[in-house]
């Protein structure tokens, strides 16, 4: 929800459920609204329908390789920088605050986090090209806007997902289209 005009409220890197009433003074006025975006229709009061995100995940937010048991993950060496980048992107909780914060109601921070966290790891390489095309196609079909370079998404994201992921998403998309016969 939006608190006094800010998705998740006034504190950086914080979800609304971590916002305590003791942070407010007696007499403060608190205006609470639902996230507003055409792709997130309001169901009732503060409830919105975020199933558009689910459909984007269904379009490409998965891997199809057999990753074995938990201990097998440690048998695949992954460069520390890549693992850290993927882990940072994987912190996205799919809340939708980035969409609510964006003047274009863009979902690119969310999509870029998913594309980055799967595409940076060896387990995510099989669907790498197909994934980015399918997720962007579904994002467009759901009616989200394009990135406006305002970076309000990063400022309001409770998991501090970086807009550098959007740059990566754009690179991944163009690389996937060049030389690809897949229709987008
Ligand atoms: S990128 Fe941040 S604001 Fe957007 S859905 Fe993920 S956690 Fe929420």
What does this structure look like?
This protein has a domain at 50-177: Alpha-helical ferredoxin (Fumarate Reductase Iron-sulfur Protein, Chain B, domain 2, Orthogonal Bundle). It is 41% helix and 6% strand. It contains 8 helices and 5 strands; from the N terminus they run E-E-E-E-E-H-H-H-H-H-H-H-H. The chain has a 3-stranded antiparallel sheet. It has a two-stranded antiparallel ribbon with strand order 4-5. Helix 1 (51-60) packs antiparallel against helix 6 (128-141), helix 5 packs across helix 8 (164-177) and helix 6 crosses helix 8. The longest helix has 14 residues, at 128-141. The relative contact order is 0.17. Bound molecules: iron/sulfur cluster (SF4). Iron/sulfur cluster (SF4) binds at residues 92-98, 109-110, 113, 157-159, 161. Iron/sulfur cluster binds at residues 92-98, 109-110, 113, 157-159, 161.
Label this structure with key terms.
single chain, 184 residues, mainly alpha, Fumarate Reductase Iron-sulfur Protein, Chain B, domain 2, three-stranded antiparallel β-sheet, two-stranded antiparallel ribbon, 5 strands, 6% strand, binds iron/sulfur cluster
Uncertain runs: none
Q: Examine the secondary-structure arrangement and name the CATH architecture of the domain at 50-177.
A: Orthogonal Bundle
Helix segment tally: 8
Order of helices and strands: EEEEEHHHHHHHH
Helix content: 40-55%
Structural class by sheet pairing and helices: mainly alpha
Distance between the termini: 33 Å
Average pLDDT works out at 94
User: Rg from C-alpha positions?
Assistant: 18 Å
Shape: globular
- Quote the beta fraction: 5-15%
The CATH class of the domain at 50-177 is identified as Mainly Alpha
């Amino acid at each position: 929800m939006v608190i006094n005009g800010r998705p998740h409220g006034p504190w950086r890197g914080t979800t609304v459920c971590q916002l305590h009433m003791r942070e407010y003074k007696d007499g403060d006025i608190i205006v609470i609204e639902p996230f507003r975006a055409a792709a997130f229709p309001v169901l009732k009061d503060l409830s919105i329908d975020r199933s558009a995100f689910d459909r984007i995940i269904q379009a490409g937010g998965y891997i199809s390789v057999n990753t074995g048991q938990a201990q097998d993950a440690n048998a695949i060496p992954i460069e520390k920088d890549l693992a850290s980048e993927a882990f940072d992107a994987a912190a996205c909780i799919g809340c939708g605050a980035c969409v609510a914060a964006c003047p274009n109601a863009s979902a690119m921070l969310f999509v870029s986090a998913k594309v980055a966290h799967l595409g940076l790891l060896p387990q995510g390489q099989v669907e790498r090209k197909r994934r980015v095309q399918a997720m962007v196609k579904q994002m467009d079909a759901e009616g989200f806007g394009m990135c406006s370079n305002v970076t309000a998404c990063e400022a309001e994201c409770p998991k501090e997902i970086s807009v550098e992921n959007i740059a990566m998403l754009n690179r991944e998309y163009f690389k996937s289209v060049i030389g690809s016969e897949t229709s987008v």
